[in-house]
Amino acid sequence: MTSPDRFAGVRYIVDDVQAAVDFYTTHLGFTLRAAAAPAFADVVRGPLRLLLSGPASSGARATPDDAGAAGRNRVHLIVDDLDTEVARLRAAGLPFRSDVVTGPGGRQILLADPAGNLVELFQPA
Fold it and tell me: Up-side HSE of residue 74: CA atoms within 13 Å toward CB?
């Protein structure tokens, strides 16, 4: 087994690999690490490795049919100024799936990637 000391990996199943790469690299500060378009791409932000698997990838083909829709799980990204990030992303026309929610730990909002996978933007209290 490969040592997990460099990255924590999350796989998102996406409809369009290039659209997902553009979304994460243009708007959320990820860097393209590797790509085998149109099946797969690997983007990173800090210690997070996000595996974007299109319909032709083995990761997508291994997914059971009853798990075809995006779930309630999400990538959690910490931001310094939530209001500034929300304004910037709204100006880019990106779709939010919630309003800003404030709790004891901070404030958060949910953004959807082009395939409907959720990304939580979180500003600690």
Answer: 18
Residue 85 three-state SS: helix
| 108-124 per-residue burial string, b: 16 or more CB within 10 A, e: under 16 | bbbbbbbbebbbbbbbe
Q: Which fold has domain 8-63+71-124?
A: 2,3-Dihydroxybiphenyl 1,2-Dioxygenase; domain 1 (3.10.180)
Task: Provide the residue ranges of all domains of the chain, joining segments of one domain with +.
Answer: 8-63+71-124
The per-residue pLDDT for 1 is 40
Residues 30-81 pLDDT 10s: 999 988 878 899 999 999 999 898 888 876 766 666 655 655 678 889 999 9
Q: Are 13 and 108 in contact (CB under 8 A)?
A: no
Q: Name which of 47, 44, 24 is nearest 34 in CA terms.
A: 44
- State the pTM of this model: 0.80
